[in-house]
Amino acid sequence: MTNPRLYLPKPREAVGNYLRIISINDVYDINNYPYVETVIKSLKETSEDAVVIACLSGDFLSPCLITSLDGGKAMLDVLKVVNIDYICLGNHEFDVTVDVLGERFKTYEGKCLNSNILDLPIVDASGQLLPKYDIVEVGSRRVAFAGFCTSKINTFRPGANITIQPIFDALKETWSKCSNDATMLIPLTHQTIAEDRELATGIEQDDQLSGKVPIIVGGHEHEIYIEKIERSLIVKAGADATNVVVVDVWWDASEQWHSAVHLLPATH
Fold first, then answer.
1. I need a labelling partner for 113 at 20 to 30 A (CA). Which of 24, 50, 85, 173 fits?
2. Do the Cβ atoms of 149 and 91 come closer than 8 Å?
3. Full-prediction pTM beyond 0.85?
């Protein structure tokens, strides 16, 4: 028996192509991944005029029983099966050592965006250091995605010898590097909701960033959050993919962008 295809309509005011983001975060077991795979596959097949991007905002390896046995191999491999496009690092990725994390990523063919952990000696399957950002074409528009991990080192396992740039500083630096190639920035963040709210406020008050960040795709908390702060919509799906968040970003006939969110509970 095949799973029924999921369909969400194109926003009525959308003109031309639009961006559809599928988001989960903090996944510590594989029970709901078949549902996530169905959502991603269905929406990539049925979303008319959409560029569909699937994201996981940190804590995709640990704490997890499987990772305690294989150092994160299975939990990283499943992301390819599910077809996650972008991930960012969370504090619990460093429950395994940096050396083990580096070995795991040598075979990872997806894109892990690392915009604020400095001098991290980890390469992916291409042999390149983890990218600071990546750009997606949405019709004639170009949208940058970036990934930011909490800088609160006290949330990491003792002995994690890493240096982390504060997220707002790193976000400004990332935008300065990609703004010539993109008109919009979508940050994946792994920090508290209070910090995401503060980030959204800082974005709106910054002359270069104001109006450029429609969505903050968040993680770290295990509860659902869907909040509009200034002009940025903050979304967190809760833990273990018990829910999947889908966010649409589109442009109207006046070239103004808009956003809307769908919350899809996992069903069995």
1. 50
2. yes
3. yes
